[in-house]
Amino acid sequence: MLSSSLILKEISHRKISFFSAVLLSAFALLCLLISIALLNSFDGETKTILTEHQKKSEVIFLEQKEKSKEILKKLEDDIRKSMKGLGFNIFIFPEGQNLAEVYSKGFASKTMPENYVHKLAETKSLAKINHLLPRLVKKFTWPEQ
To answer: How does DSSP classify residue 108?
Structure first.
């Protein structure tokens, strides 16, 4: 006997069991294909939602970045104005000036040429000079007082 004839005789003998097994196998395969299709559809929807959120996030990020740049620029300007009003943190005296004389008299007796200010302002090795102010100070007596 051939194996194919044995299989056919077995199928004809157990018709209900065979057809129910084939039907359940087909149903399981159909469920698998539907699940795969639904998961692919879900993945596509998820990707579109994520790209939309990414675009919205980038727009919000750029807006916030521009706002923060404006705020920082205003803050730097306010700090610069405040520091200008507070006074100076460095004094430059002419070469050979005796500092004891400056502290005792309250002013320097030697002077520097004006072009030194321009040289100092144009120097690239210094960090950043926002405000240079020459200062001539001399004590004098006021007879009316």
So the answer is: -
